[in-house]
Amino acid sequence: xxxxxxxxxxxxxxxxxxxxxxxLPGSNDQPEIIKxxxxxxxxxxxxxxxxxxxDEQESRFSPPTKEQVVGWPPVRSYRxxxxxxxxxxxxTGSGMxxxxxxxxxxxxxxxxxxxxxxxxxxxxxxxxxxxxIIGLYSExxxxxxxxxxxxxxxxxxxxxxxxxxxxxxxxxxCKRLRIMKSCEARGLGDCV
Amino acid sequence: MVDLVESVDSDLVSPESNPTCPFPDExxxxxxxxxxSHKDRSSVSLxxxxxxxxxxxxxRHVFIGNCYSVSPEIVVGRFPKIKSVTLxxxxxxxxxNLVPEDWGADVYPWLSVLAKAYPFLEELRLKRMAVSDESLxxxxxxxxxxxxxxxxxxxxxxxxxxxAIATHCRNxxxxxxxxxxxxxxxxxxxxxxxxxxxxxxVLNFASLNSEVNFNDLEKLVTRCKSLRVLKVNRNINLxxxxxxxxxxxxxxxxxxxxxxxxxxxxPVADLEASFGNCKNLLxxxxxxxxxxxxxxxxxxxxxxxxxxxxxxxxxxxFELAMLLMHCKSLRRLWVLDTVGDMGLEAVGSWCPxxxxxxxxxxxxxxxxxVAGVTESGFVAVxxxxxxxxxxxxxxxxxxxxxxxxxxxxxxxxxxxxxxxxNLGQPDYLTNEPMDEAFGAVVRxxxxxxxxxxxxxxxxxxxEYIGKYAKNLxxxxxxFAGSSDLGLKYVLGGCPRLRKLEIRDCPFxxxxxxxxxxxxxSMRSLWMSACNLTLNGCxxxxxxxxxxxxxxxxxxxxxxxxxxxxxxxxxVAGPRRDAPPFVLTL
Lengths: 192, 585
Fold this sequence. Notes:
The complex is a heterodimer of chains A (about 190) and B (about 575). Chain A has helices spanning about 1-15, 55-60, 75-90, 120-130, 165-175, 180-185, and strands spanning about 95-100, 110, 135-140, 140-145, 150-155, 160, 175-180. With about 190 residues, chain A is of the alpha+beta class. In chain A, the strands form 2 sheets. Chain A has a 5-stranded mixed beta sheet with strand order 2-1-7-5-6. The N and C termini of chain A lie far apart (about 75 Å). Chain B is globular and about 70 Å long. Chain B contains 20 helices and 23 strands. Helix content of chain B is about 30%, strand content about 15%. By secondary structure, chain B is of the alpha/beta class. In chain B, strand 9 (about 230), helix 10 and strand 10 (about 255) form a beta-alpha-beta unit. The chains are: A alpha+beta (about 190), B alpha/beta (about 575). At the A-B interface, helix 1 and helix 3 of A face helix 17, helix 18, helix 19 and helix 20 of B.
C-alpha cells in the first residue's frame, strides 16, 4: 500500500497525457481520447479513419489502413516470401489463366497468358480459339476492319482496349478478357 | 528455469544445510535425473539446499527464455554438467520487423563461455538470436561432441556458417534450419557433409532457397540409416523426391519439395507407391504448388499422419476435402485460407480428432477484398472437432456470436489466437466491438494459456481478460483498448501472466506503473507505439531495480516519447551490449 501511495505522489511530477475516468467500464459515452499513439510516429503514418469505422467510432482511436502499418498483419517474413515467390515464379508451370468471353458465345474459355510473348501471338490464339477475326490494332483508331474487338478487365476493374500498353504491363494487370462485337465497342477507343 | 536463480540464492540457501533431508546425493541425483521438465526442476531446486545442489548437478538441459535475464557466467556457475542449451533472444515482435537490426541477442558471448564450461556440449537450440558465421564456425570447432543444432527465426548468418557445421561436426544428428534471415549463398554447404557422417537423424533445410547437389543429398540420405526427419527445399522435384523416399522409407517426418511438374517422366502411380511404402509417416509438409493431379499420391501415407502442414500449398476447398477423407488420425492441421469456409467445413466433417488448426492468409497484404475464411468456417470446424484446443485464425471478418459458439463447442482451448486482419474491425453484422467475443473466450475456457486479440476492442475486453483469464500466460494486443483502464485491468488480474506484448494501444504511464509489482513475476513486457513517456519509464526503472527497462529511440519522434519499450526481469543487470538506440533506464 505504501508503495502505491508513493507512486501516486510521483504522478504529480510527471507530464502525463492520460486522464482517469470515473465511469463504468464499457459505458457508451465517448471516452476522453488520449492523443493517439500514432501521431509523431513516422514509421507507420496514420491516416485517420478507416472505412470500417462508424460515425460514433470516428472520433475514437482510429487505426490506420492496412497497407501503411509496419508489421501488420502479423505474418512472419518467411511466410510472406513464400507466397510472393509463388506468385511470381512461373518456372513451376503454374501458368496465368484468365477467363475469356466472347459476346454471343454460350460459354467462356480459359487461356494461359504465359503461353504468349506478344499481342500478335495472343490475337492469333484468340482467333483460333473462337474462330473469329480480330482486326488490326492501331493506336489512333483501335481495332478496324473486323466484327470483333478484344478488351480486358484490369486490376482496377476497368474495361480497357487490348494493345495500348506494353505487353509485360498488360499481362500483369489483365484479369479477364472479353471479345466484344465491334458495334458495341465503338466509343472505347475514344476514352481518355 | 534459470530466471529464479536470485530468489533461490537469497531466500533458501542458508549457511546451515537442512539436517532433516534424509536422501544422500547418490540416491537423489539418479532420481532427479529422470525429471526433465524445467518447471519441475525449478520446483525441486526450491525445496532445500541439498535438493538445490542435487538438482544443479543432475541437470543436463538448461532452458533460457530470455537471454538477457541471466548471464552465461551465472548459468555455468550454477549448472556444471550441461549437455543441451536452449536460448531465446529477441522479443517476439521482431518477427514482424518491429525490432531494429543490431538490437542484440548475439549468441557469440554465450558460446565463448559455454566452450570453456561445457566443452562436451551436445545440443544447441536458438530462437530469435543473432547468429553470425563466426559463431557457427566457433561452434563447429570448439565442441567436439556436438550433435544437434536448431535455428529458428535467427538471423545474421549465411550458408557459409552451415558449411562449417557440416564439415566439422563429426557426430551431427540434427540440423534444423527454420525460417531464418539467412544469406543464402548457394547450396554447396550440403556437399560438405563428409562420407563418414552416418549419424544424421534430422535434416531440415526447407526454408533455404538455393539448390543443393542432389547426388550428394541422395548419398547422405542413403548412408544415414537413422534418418527420421527430412524436410527438403523447393528445388527438389518430384522425381528426386521419389528417389529419396526409396532410400528412406523409415521417415516419420517428411517435407517435400515442389509437388507438381510439367514433364511427367514417371507415372503418378509410382510416386503413389513410394508414399505407400512410408508406413511411419507422422508429419507431412512442403507440398509447394501442388494441385489435384499430384496431391492424391500422398493418400496412401495419410492414414498415419497426425500433423499435416499445408501452409505452402494454396489448396482449394474440394482439394482439401478430398485429401482429408484419407486423414483419419489427423491431430494438427495448418492450411492457407485459399481453402475457404467450405474447406473448413470438410475439416469439421473428416477430422474428429483435430486438436490444432492454423489458417494462414495467402495474400495478407492484398488490398482488394480477397476471398478467405470467415466466421462460418470457424464455427464449422468447432462443430466437428470438439477436441480443438489450439487455434490460429487469420480472417477478414468475424462476429461475437460466432466466437461464442466456437468456444461453447470447444471449451478446452489453451491457445486462442484470432487475427482479424482489417484494423479496428467491429462485428460485421452488429457493428459492435468484438469485446463480447473475447469475453466469451476467457469465460468459457478455463485452461486458456495464450490469447491474441484483434478487431475493434474497448477496455471491456481487458476487463474480461483480467477478471476471468486465470491461467493466461501469454497475451498479444494490437490496436485495441480505449484508455489506461484496459491495461490496468490486465495487470490487476491474470495471476499467471508471463509475456505481454502490446502495440499501438492508448495505454500510458499510469497504466504501466499500475503493474509495478507484477513485472518481476513475468518474463517480459513489450509496449510499442503506446502513450508512454521517458519519465514514466524512468519512474518504473527507479522503483524496480531488478528489471531492465529498455527504451528504443526512434530518430524521428520527440524526445519525451518512449516509442518502443521492452521491460524484463533479470539477474544480470543492465546489458552491456546495448546498441546506441537502446536506452536502459
